[in-house]
């Protein structure tokens, strides 16, 4: 088998060379290609991907540098049911993760990987997560037989020579081995070995399963590294909020998928709030550390966005639309007759001659979606017109507020401020989001999703919550913690709050609270503004309507406490006592019985 270039000429890391050799012996590729991240390389790989039918060139006049990829229709989303945390014991993975013993996982996937790259090219993809030269930054290397992965990793991470330079002769890097295995769902396994800083992912080419830098390394493995090393890896956007006087505060916010995270990260301020600006630091992941000032500082470890396309429009998120005008890879969107892109919710009528995400002519009469509901764009963050000037700051940005949020038709007010750090961690621990049943008009089934990390926490969720509480001892200046809900509905099933840009009014209240300039009332579940405490300038809503969105309903909260209590019972022994105590205190203040029903 040949290697371009020879490993010895490209890296000083003995450990890296040995590991690449080991993977090559296992998978037996025809060729090994070390990626250097250059523009020349991008052009060459793109040409090869077009030749192989992996990428389809889009209209280069309308969308320069943009290409379409159509995935195997069986491979369009993350597959939580075959995602495993392979820690030495089941207890270390905890009650919310699938677990496989490390020996069993290496053996099972090893058998699938044996000779799996015969006749194929093995790409060695070195990358850095976090700004170069930053104490946040970490090196990973992904080995993959997918040219789509190699090209996507160049967008999503700082990929190539810079990573090998940062690695030097060290053996400290995440080892990610990925093989498509003919995209056979029977051979699909996403296995994480936190103790080995290793990921083995087989049988899928979908971003969340195959771009190992993202969910696999920057969240699952990094959450575990963060616990060992005293920092946090979180499923959070980071935004900068600049007031009319030019002062900027930074906010980190955790939401489950499909709750408007990318929209919030790129928010367009409403015209009525003159002089306010929002800048994006990150749209999905935050690595958070205690800074020299005793506050929390955060960075976005990624270099690009992997966003959901449907629903993105010039109305809902013009900055995202501008971010995909050039150099973007689209996956499973529809293609227009003139080689442009289209998806549902783009706010442009479906043009005639549309080709659907599977490559078939589409007509509205088919009743099918033209773009897959989880179709995506992968685009460099540098394309974002409101990218924060501090997105690449090696120090990260100082965090003034942490927000947790979900999609809740009932119960959760527009905004709620925690009393202190422990109460804030409790809010994050019990946060939930409604399943699609809510969309059908019924009260949805609430899936508890602590800190939006349920599918992404690389170790026992109880220990993870303990780590959050433990962090407080090292933070002299803790940020305030809030809960938000943009999705509350009235009795007629209408959203109570307009959302999108208007959410800035809620963020502004938070910043004012931090400066001591805004009012709030105490309730058993936290502090809530009255309508009069929010800046409602130019908002087409009465104060009474806003108060309705802010209301705390004792009956609804009774159910909420029971449901949160059930989740706590499921966590079991590792649930920190302080959170159990907070639960009891809130229940007592509400006058409800907080007894945890035993799980199972
Ligand atoms: C997600 C994503 O699934 O960011 O959360 O892709
Ligand atoms: Mn995400």
Features:
single chain; 600 residues; alpha/beta; Phosphoenolpyruvate Carboxykinase, domain 1; Phosphoenolpyruvate Carboxykinase, domain 3; Phosphoenolpyruvate Carboxykinase, domain 2; 3 domains; ten-stranded mixed β-sheet; nine-stranded mixed β-sheet; 17 helices; 30 strands; 22% strand; globular; binds oxalic acid; binds manganese (II) ion
Fraction of helical residues: 25-40%
Number of helices: 17
- Unreliable residue stretches: 436-441
- What name is given to the CATH topology of the largest domain? Phosphoenolpyruvate Carboxykinase, domain 3
In the CATH scheme, the class of the largest domain would be Alpha Beta
Shape: globular
Q: What does the largest sheet look like? A: 10 strands, mixed
Average pLDDT reading: 95
Structural class category:
alpha/beta
What is the count of distinct domains? 3
Small molecules in complex: oxalic acid, manganese (II) ion
Overall radius of gyration: 24 Å
Distance from first to last alpha carbon = 53 Å
Bin the strand percentage: 15-25%
Give a count of the beta strands, DSSP E runs of length 2 or more: 30
CATH architecture of the largest domain: Alpha-Beta Complex
């Amino acid at each position: 088998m040949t290697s371009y270039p020879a490993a010895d000429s490209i890296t000083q890391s003995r450990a890296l060379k040995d590991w690449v050799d080991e993977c090559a012996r296992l998978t037996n590729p025809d060729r090994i290609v070390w990626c250097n991240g250059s523009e020349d390389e991008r052009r060459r790989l793109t040409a090869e991907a077009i030749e192989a039918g992996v990428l389809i060139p889009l209209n280069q006049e309308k969308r320069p540098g943009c290409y379409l990829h159509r995935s195997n229709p069986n491979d369009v989303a993350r597959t939580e049911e075959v995602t495993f945390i392979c820690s030495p014991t089941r207890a270390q993975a905890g009650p919310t993760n699938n677990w496989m013993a490390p020996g069993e996982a290496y053996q099972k996937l090893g058998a699938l990987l044996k000779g799996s790259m015969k006749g194929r090219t093995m790409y060695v993809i070195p990358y850095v997560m976090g700004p170069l030269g930053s104490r946040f930054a970490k090196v990973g290397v992904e080995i993959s037989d997918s040219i789509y992965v190699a090209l996507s990793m160049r967008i999503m991470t700082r990929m190539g020579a810079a990573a090998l330079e940062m690695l030097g002769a060290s053996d400290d890097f995440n080892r990610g081995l990925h093989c498509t295995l003919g995209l056979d769902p029977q051979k699909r396994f996403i296995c994480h070995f936190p103790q080995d800083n290793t990921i083995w992912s087989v049988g899928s080419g979908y971003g969340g399963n195959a771009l190992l830098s993202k969910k696999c390394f920057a969240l699952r493995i990094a959450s575990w590294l963060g616990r060992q090393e005293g920092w946090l890896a979180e499923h959070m956007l980071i935004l900068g909020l600049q007031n009319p006087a030019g002062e900027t505060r930074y906010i980190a916010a955790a939401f489950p998928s499909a709750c408007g995270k990318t929209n919030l990260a790129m928010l367009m301020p409403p015209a009525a709030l003159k002089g306010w600006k929002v800048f994006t630091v990150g749209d999905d992941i935050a690595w958070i550390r205690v800074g020299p000032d005793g506050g929390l500082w955060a960075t976005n470890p990624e270099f690009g966005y992997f966003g959901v396309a449907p629903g993105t429009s010039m109305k809902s998120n013009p900055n995202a639309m501008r971010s995909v005008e050039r150099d973007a890879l689209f996956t499973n969107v529809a293609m227009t007759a003139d080689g442009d892109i289209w998806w549902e919710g783009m706010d442009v009528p479906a043009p005639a001659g549309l080709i659907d995400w599977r490559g078939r002519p589409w007509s509205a009469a088919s009743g099918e979606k033209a773009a897959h509901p989880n179709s995506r764009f992968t685009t460099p963050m540098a394309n974002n017109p409101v990218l924060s000037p501090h997105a690449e700051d090696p120090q990260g940005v100082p965090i003034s507020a942490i927000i947790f949020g979900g999609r809740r038709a009932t119960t959760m007010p527009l905004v709620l401020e925690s009393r202190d750090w422990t109460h804030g961690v409790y809010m994050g621990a019990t946060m939930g989001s409604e399943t699609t049943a809510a969309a059908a008009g019924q009260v949805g089934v609430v899936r508890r999703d602590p800190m939006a990390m349920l599918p992404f926490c690389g170790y026992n969720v109880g220990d993870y919550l303990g780590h959050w509480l433990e962090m407080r001892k090292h933070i002299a200046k803790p940020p305030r913690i809030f809960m938000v809900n943009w999705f509350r509905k009235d009795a007629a099933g209408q959203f109570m709050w307009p959302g999108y840009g208007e959410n800035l009014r809620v963020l502004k209240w938070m910043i004012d609270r931090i400066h001591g300039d805004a009012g709030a009332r105490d309730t058993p579940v936290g502090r809530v503004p009255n309508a009069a405490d929010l800046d409602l300038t130019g908002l087409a809503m009465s104060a009474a309507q806003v108060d309705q969105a802010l209301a705390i309903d004792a009956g609804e909260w009774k159910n909420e406490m029971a449901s949160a209590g059930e989740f706590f019972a499921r966590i079991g022994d590792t649930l920190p006592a302080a959170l159990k105590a907070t639960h009891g205190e809130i229940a007592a203040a509400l006058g409800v019985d907080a007894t945890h029903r035993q799980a199972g």
